[in-house]
C-alpha cells in the first residue's frame, strides 16, 4: 500500500473517483464519499484500516480478498461501487447536508439508469442524510428506487468501532443471501 505525504493527500481533495458500475448488477455498493487516499489512488475503499475488502470476502461476496487496485474484478461477480457524494474529503463530516441531499438525488438517478437488483449503502448516517429517512436502521429498507431494493450496511471504516469485521461480515452475508434469491 502506497503511503502518501500530507501534500499528496491534500492534492486529492475534492477529486472524484470513477464509479465501478455496469447495467444490471446484483449489488451496487455505495460508500459515503471517497477518502483522500481513495482519490489519490483512484481505488475505492483504499484507506488503510478500511474493512470493506476483507468484509466483502468474509461475507462470501468474493472468492478471495481483493485489493482496492482489483476493484474492476467486482463487475465479473455482479458487484459495483459508487458513492453518495463524489467529492473526496479527509472526513465525512466535511460534507454538508445539501451535498448529501443532492448526492441522494443523483444516486437515485444513477440507480434508475443502471438498474441493480440491490443498492447497498454502507453507512446508516449517510443513508439517512441522503434520503431523508431519519429512522432508518441497518438492514433492508422499505424504500425502493424503481425495482431496485435498498439495504443499509454498517460503514466499514476503521473508525466504526461498534462493528467488528466478523459482525459486519454477518450483515453483508445477509444481503448476499437475499441478493441470491
From TrEMBL:
It holds the Pfam family UDG. It is an enzyme of class 3 (hydrolase). Keywords: DNA damage, DNA repair, Glycosidase, Hydrolase. It comes from the Bacteria. Residues 18-179 form the Uracil-DNA glycosylase-like domain. Its EC number is 3.2.2.28. This is G/U mismatch-specific DNA glycosylase. It comes from Streptomyces macrolidinus. The gene is mug.
